[in-house]
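Sync notes, pocket subgroup
Present: LS, DG
LS reminded everyone that the earlier model was apo-only. Rerun requested with pyridoxal-5'-phosphate included. Inputs:
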Amino acid sequence: MKDPITFADVLSARKTIAGHVIHTPLRPSTALSEQVGSPVWLKCEQQQYTGSFKLRGAANAVLRLSDAQKAKGVVGVSTGNYGRALAYAARNAGVRSVICMSELVPQNKVDGIRAQGAEVRIIGRSQDEAQHEVDRLVKEDGMTMLPPFDHADIIAGQGTLGLEVIEALPDVDTLLVPLSGGGLLAGVALVAKSINPGIRVVGISMERGCAMITSLQEGKPTAVRELPTLADSLGGGIGENNQYTFDMCADLTDDFVLVNEAQIADGIRAAYHDDQQVIEGAGAVGIAALRAGLVDNPGQTVVLTTGCNIDMALHKRIAGGEDVDLMAE
Ligand SMILES: *Cc1c(COP(=O)(O)O)cnc(C)c1O
């Protein structure tokens, strides 16, 4: 039996990662506050090192390794923000990192991860084949695999984001949390419910292929078809043998909301024009949900804006008014 993750784990994660992550700003949004009729803030993790909150969990997991594990290095599978974060956290701790990915991953993403200091291994044509290489590195080279969300140290690290929000704004009524594998939601909701069970935690995902919400509806981890979406960082499954996030998301979330592609584009656009923030699709789903009126009576609201890593040409088209549909391209 695995040990449950506790509030104390988040407090020690905060100590562990202090100085390795930015305490990001909590920025009032005048435009959203006016639209909603109650105060709204953005918790600006798009300003986090590496461009997303994923550094919190990755830093905690890497720094908590034993010296023997650090000496052998870490390995992960990721095409996006987690790969960058793990590479950065490892380099910062003087630990070797290898990120495995399939040859379908676009070159700019490969370069982004390499730029953070990871060795990138391009293996085969699917995530599964990349995973085989990870398994080999663990078995033959003794490296430690650190998964992107379903891991106690990752979840505790993401929880530090919730801690920062509630310390700055103890009266918060509603937290809007982008949801994919659920590491962020699990950590933040654990903190919120430990401090004040009355804080409402809303998980937000895209209509196009949300694995966690589908899994919760089915009552077990369920694979969904991956489709092109503006919220690309929210794609992917929750793992057949999910250990933590499935149960924690089921137990700790008050509501789930789904947003469509036009709403996500609207969120990205509003973040830029009203709040001067470049936010990627996954990071803008909370803004999208508020603007579409999908969260009833939210009260004092904090929107977790989780990342900034969006292709600049795509951002320009959306900010310019286009409702880009990636499925039609
Ligand atoms: C990974 C990610 C999420 C979702 O986090 P999970 O822990 O997988 O639910 C949200 N936003 C951004 C920008 C991300 O990179």
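DG: The first helix runs from residue 7 to 17.
LS: The domain at 55-145 is CATH 3.40.50.1100 (Rossmann fold).
Action: DG to write up.
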